[in-house]
Design brief:
The chain is α+β, with helices and mostly antiparallel strands. It contains 6 helices and 7 strands, in the order βαααβββαβαββα. Helix 1 (about 10-20) packs across helix 3 (about 35-40). The radius of gyration is 15 Å and the shape is globular. About 20% of the residues are buried.
């Protein structure tokens, strides 16, 4: 079993590198790595470490949660989601999370996990996450 842990703060530069290829070059020309890091560096965050390797992290900007995980760790990092939510709910409860329509895996997880869809537009589906919602982690604990 892999050793997974949260670190005190996310490597925002790594998170940018993970997500950069998903966006058009016209956007990343404006939202450069340096600008993005400067924007998020003061925000509360946790990093993800798997077997001693930085794997991504989560940043809360005061309104939304931003997550990024290196592709080679997809499917392995999920055990870090519950402690990430515990950390997030200590900061803000409830919180809205926007998922892009093309992120089918995450949308399936959110829908099957029991989180409520509260808005939808051409680009995003917005979910409301709350520690009191009977989401996937609370249901498992109740067994």
């Amino acid at each position: 079993m892999a050793e997974l842990r949260l670190t005190d703060c996310a490597d925002v530069g790594l998170m940018y590198d993970i997500e950069q290829s998903r966006y058009p070059s016209a956007l990343t020309a404006i939202a450069t790595r340096e600008r993005t890091v400067a924007h998020y560096i003061g925000c509360p965050s946790v990093g993800y470490e798997i077997d001693g390797v930085a794997a991504g992290g989560a940043v809360f900007d005061g309104r939304e949660l931003h997550l990024a995980v290196l592709p080679q760790f997809h499917g392995r990092w999920a055990w870090l989601l519950k402690p990430t939510l515990d950390w997030l709910f200590a900061l803000c409860d409830p919180v809205r999370v926007r998922i892009e329509h093309d992120n089918a895996r995450c949308i399936r997880f959110m829908d099957s996990g029991g989180w409520e869809r509260v808005a939808e537009d051409r680009q995003y589906i917005t979910y409301l996450l709350s520690s009191t919602t009977p989401h996937v982690f609370r249901r498992r604990r109740a067994r």
